[in-house]
Design a protein that fits this description.
With 80 residues, the protein is of the alpha+beta class. The protein has one domain: Orthogonal Bundle (Arc Repressor Mutant, subunit A), CATH 1.10.10. It is built from four helices and three strands, in the order H-E-H-E-E-H-H. It has a three-stranded antiparallel β-sheet. The N and C termini lie far apart (27 Å). This is HemN C-terminal domain-containing protein. InterPro entries: HemN_C, rSAM_sf.
């Protein structure tokens, strides 16, 4: 059995996996996921999370703070 993910599900998985690592999230091939229009909206949401102390970083390079790591599942859903 092999699960087929929609582009939206694939994008969610990619963001989820990257944010859970120590290297954090840096850049993403937005056109690959058909999500280029969502890029601006995504980073608006990232900025809100940065202001609330859940993520740190500059530009497209972001990391979860200790506070953010405890809530990673809900933060990911808020981002996408």
């Amino acid at each position: 059995f092999q699960e087929e993910l929609s582009p939206e599900q694939d994008l969610l998985e990619e963001i989820y996996l990257r944010l859970r690592t120590n290297s954090g999230f840096e850049g993403l091939d937005w056109p690959k996921y058909g999500a280029t229009p969502k890029r601006k909206q995504f980073f608006k949401k990232v900025e809100k999370l940065r202001e609330e102390g859940f993520v740190v970083g500059e530009g497209e390079k972001i990391y979860l703070t200790d506070k953010g790591r405890f809530l990673v599942d809900s933060l990911i859903l808020e981002l996408v």
